[in-house]
Amino acid sequence: MKNSLMVLLLSPGLLIAAAHAQDKKGTTVAPAITDTAKKKPASITDKVKSCRKYDGLFTLYQDTANGTVQLYVKKSQLGKEYIYQSFSINGPNQLYLNQSMHRATMIFKIEKAFDKLEFSRVNTRFWYDPHNPVSKTAMVDKPEAVFLVEKTVSEDADGYLISADGLFISEKLDPVKPLLPPGIPPTAIFNLGSLNPAKSRYTTLRSFPNNSDIVVDLAYDNPMPFNSGTTDITDARYVRVRMQHSLIEMPKNDFRARRDDPRVGYFSQMVNDQTSISPVPFKDIIHRWDLKKKDPNAALSEPVEPIVYWIENTTPVEYRQTIIDAGLKWNEAFEKAGFKNAVQMKIMPDDADWDPADIRYNVIRWVSSASPTYGAIGPSFVNPKTGQIIGADITIEWYSGSATPILDELFKSAAATGNLQLPGLDAQHEAYCSLANELKSQFLTGSTVLDASNASTADLVEMHKQFLTYLIMHEMGHTLGLNHNMKSSQMLSPAEVNNTELTHKIGLIGSVMDYPAINIALDRSKQGDYYTTKAGPYDLWAIEYGYTPFNEGEEVAGLKNIIARSTDPKLAFGNDGDDMRAPGKAMDPRVNINELTSDAIGYAEDRFKIVNQVMGKLVQKYTKEGQSYAELRTRYGTLLGQRFSMASAVSRYVGGIYIDRSFPEQKSANKPYTPVPLATQKRAIDVLSKYIFAPDAFDADAQVFPYMQPQRRGFTQNVVGDDFKATENILAVQTGSTLSHLLHGATLQRITNSRLYGNQYSVASLMGDLQKGIFNADISTNVNVYRQNLQTYYVRQLVSMVDPKNQQFDDVSKGAALYTLKKIKTQLATAVSTNDETKAHRANLLFLIQNGLEPK
Ligand SMILES: [Zn+2]
């Protein structure tokens, strides 16, 4: 009795216990109790008396009165390694805290130090051959990362009890908030403020033999928010973020890590062999599921455990069959690796008693977000030690209608979010797939073209089905371990892409892991598939590499045989690391998004023609009774976006370098680097000159401008008025990703460097050709407003280059810029005009040139 009374008094937080203690207060024995307490601490049984127990990998005790949680750590668990994975479940989209985002992955361990337990992160980036004496230095120069020390509150023969709040109601495991780099104003991005533990709580605890899930609501307070966020933020001062911490047992199995190869695109763990003297001491391993044959001797066998995907019961009923069919199409690829029915698709019942956030289920989730940021993601999480994929989720963000402001997405969102750093995310999980954004823009273009050509509803339904199939296959590909292949859309020639006999057999593109342009035939009678609807040759081969089982000792040779085929053009591969989305970055123009066919320049030319044709039908098609002109404005934005992405893709051929990833023994006909032929570079400039620089390039658009009225809601007109800013947006098409690439310091330097090994196009010639495209057509006449903006932009860029203070350009580029400015000055002296507008414009050009040429 004495003992129990002592426990009660030592636990003031336990309300029930305290009330009970009142009854025992008849005789005051406090000093004696204190003495006893010093000798013998409270037992675990007493400490958890008012708690509900969650037995599993880690045993959790939750106080039923105040909700606090205690964690029991067995002595046998000390020093062992566990996997930690965090997920966001509900939070601001713009901070990537929305549902099912897979965030931090790490290995941690718990150790005892005096009366405390220490939690630390394990470094998995090194490997040591245990037979090499150097392996004795494994822990040397690898400082420990202890993220939490917690005093034990009680212990028994088997383990220790600690308060878990410091671990779970905190940012110790996952930093949650993105960091703003210095110099970014606090108004630039929505800011959560500070974590308020008093307003935070546990929402769900789940503990199973192999994992424990702790779901918490973390409350953030920001008394003075400078940025009120998007419409999903109810009150910028108070935001609660729901997070799930999952503690996972290291899988106990005979899974063998598979080595990564630069010729095929898997997500990977980078590991350095610290006991090797090789110049390439890399032991990088790929992410893949643990697939084993039921019948190891059969050429084709079902797996012991298939990869099962559940379609969440929130998914619209009419799309479920398409999703099932799309998922099952991956089985063709697994058959190449010797597996039958490796992928299984199931529908989550409406009365399911499990939670889609339960890590034991791979779920294809369907959400409707206030401000979709990614469109769709297909993340998976792995054992960092082996690359074994343990779980995966796919989330499809549904866009409401077609009134989404596409223009804003195209030209503004990248800049607005480009400064975000996401500290909770490991590099391999940072690969957010923005495919659905790109795909949506392409899909809207396709549906606009179909509308304009009076296509039937059935045609539109078919296009949507192909779109959804592609999206699901792509995101599932990520969850199978594959990263992007932005080179695969070049597989077929323009003559082949609409040949459905061929595309149904091998696919429209080499891989579903690309961001292709939607396939639209200029000649509508020739239309084939809009999207590929099957795993392409590259996908089949990549799965064969990642999943074909080998006996130990045969794996090296087996993988070598598979990878030797990488020189087959159908298996071409290049991922985000090489893709040419960002101006100045990367080299191979074939590794890009929003393009199609082996002749991407010709295909782009077709697309420019299609856009100009459709432009003439927009007003008639989207003037609809009973609705505002908001849809018309969106449709127009989509078409402008097509010009933007096509011009961007074409520009990459200038100064481009074809990359061959093959190894020497494959005896490829190409060198690792081959500059793009001169004629191709010149052709790219010609297409840009004709379709985005020429005075008449945007003539077709003017008829739409008087109708470009968005729908007014309340007092939502923005501060600069909501009339369409045609000049600003069209200049963005010309410069945003095109001239900004051609005149980028890195592009110009690459042009000069590649002159040393075969490039025949010089920086001076490029600048001269741009001058022709930007000035010649209207030098003897008046200059329209698009051309005034374009010419001024070009002159300003050249002036900026010759500025001695500008260090972003090499001297070859500076010389060429100076030479071109002088040529433009001479050319302007011959100019003819009849209106003041043109005279004023040219006077400004001469002023800019004069200022640029005069030493400051
Ligand atoms: Zn993707």
**Overall radius of gyration:** 31 Å
Largest sheet: 12 strands, antiparallel
Structural class: alpha+beta
What integer is the average pLDDT?
88
| CATH fold-level label of one domain | Collagenase (Catalytic Domain)
Number of H/I helices: 23
Summarize the structure.
By secondary structure, the chain is of the alpha+beta class. The longest helix has 23 residues, at 457-479.
Descriptive overview:
It is a single chain. This protein is α+β, with helices and mostly antiparallel strands and 856 residues long. Helix content is 34%, strand content 16%. It is built from 23 helices and 24 strands. Strands 1, 2, 3, 4, 5, 6, 8, 9, 10, 11, 12 and 13 form a 12-stranded antiparallel beta sheet that branches. Strands 17, 18, 19, 20, 21 and 22 form a 6-stranded mixed beta sheet that branches. It has a two-stranded parallel ribbon with strand order 7-15. Helix 9 crosses helix 16 (630-651) and helix 17 (678-693) packs parallel to helix 20. Bound molecules: zinc ion. Zinc ion binds at residues 433, 435, 474, 478, 484.
Which helices and strands appear, and what pairs or packs with what?
Elements lengths: L1 H9 L4 H9 L6 H10 L4 H4 L3 E4 L4 E5 L5 E6 L6 E10 L10 E13 L2 E7 L3 E2 L17 E11 L3 E5 L1 H4 L25 E2 L5 E7 L3 E11 L16 E12 L18 E2 L2 E2 L11 E2 L20 E5 L5 H12 L2 H6 L6 E5 L14 E6 L8 E2 L2 E3 L6 E9 L8 H12 L17 H18 L4 H23 L20 H7 L30 H11 L7 H9 L36 H16 L2 H4 L8 H22 L5 E3 L13 E3 L2 H16 L32 H17 L2 H10 L8 H13 L9 H18 L8 H19 L6 H18 L3
Parallel strand pairs: 7-15, 17-18, 17-19, 19-22
Antiparallel strand pairs: 1-2, 2-3, 3-9, 4-5, 4-13, 5-6, 6-8, 8-9, 10-12, 11-12, 12-13, 14-16, 20-22, 21-22, 23-24
Helix pairs in contact: 1-3, 6-10, 9-10, 9-16, 14-16, 16-17, 16-18, 17-20, 18-21, 20-22, 21-22, 21-23, 22-23
Bound molecules: zinc ion.
